[in-house]
Design goal:
By secondary structure, this protein is an alpha/beta fold. It is built from 13 helices and 13 strands. It folds into 2 domains: 102 residues, Aspartate Aminotransferase, domain 1 (Alpha-Beta Complex); 218 residues, Type I PLP-dependent aspartate aminotransferase-like (Major domain) (Aspartate Aminotransferase, domain 2, 3-Layer(aba) Sandwich). The model has no long low-confidence stretch (mean pLDDT 94).
Amino acid sequence: MRKLSAREAFVVDRETMTGPSPRRAVRLMKEYHPPLGGRDSLRLDFNENTVACSPAVLKLLERIAASDLTKYPERETVEAAAATHLGLKQEQVVLTNGVDEAIHVLCGTYMDAGDEMLLPVPTYTMYEVYASGTDGRAVTVQAGEDFAFPAERLLAAITPSTKIIAIANPNSPTGTTVSREEILAIAARAPHAIVLVDEAYFHFFGETVADLIGTVPNLMLARTFSKAYGLAGLRLGLLAGTRENMQWIRRVISPYSVNSVALACLPPALEDTAYLEWYVEEVCGAREEFKRGLNELGVHWWPSQANFVLTRIGVKHKDFVAAMHRRGVLVRDRSADPGCDGCVRVTVGTREQMRQAIGAFRASLEEIQWSK
């Protein structure tokens, strides 16, 4: 039999091989599929800023030259500005490609085989997604009645294998909050674990643990510029912790993961406090008005300290979301989240936008013949 040439053998191998197999953790990794389509509608499904970023950011964008895009980004100066904004030192802060990268890098830095990420649920999906991509695992603790933070059960679930405890404050999709005392108790009970406090919705709540960074050795803080600041499209987040912990984070994270345009836009966004205060005040006022509208419709909702409200629609939740979409309003079905069967989350925008949303609510409920 004629011996195959190297090229012929390669062709045969290509036709029969299935390709390299990824790590077992990746094969079993929890998937996340964001809803797509209808993006020209009123977007009340991703908790973004529903209006615009600061006008100061737009002016900055107009001054970016083509030659500026030829250079690799340098983050140090902007990280210093972000640190000062939080009352921290530059060495305590790392800018990230959205909070998603912060979570991903945190898992890559601290999660080893047999380690556990402790999660009070329901909560932000990406914690479990990134934990499941490591050789560790996520351990969930169900929230209490009306989604109250399960402090005692969480404390009881801490083990020597606990490596990260992720706490969204305010939480998504519920809008509930955790007290400072509960966070400190958890950090004290688990000195061997990173306690991540994700303050993505801080501006609509007003309470922070930023002042504890550096004094509580295992505490880390995450912030995003996708919500109140309106920079979701630039993918910009922040992770803060002790100098020692951030040294390890810097070793893992790509030095160029935050692009030059995002870095250029952050300082004017931070400086324009008047715009930020206007938007936050508008959303908080719209949130109260929206809840009154829900009461008039007889729709159950949960108190929220974020820029969204979780509602209970019930068994017709899918029909409701589709009916809202037909009326040009996108809302998020959260029924797949633990304890959230029949629930739909609605981002809160401006007063005018939420009046449109209430009108769509009323018409959609009538269309699906909804009853409490």
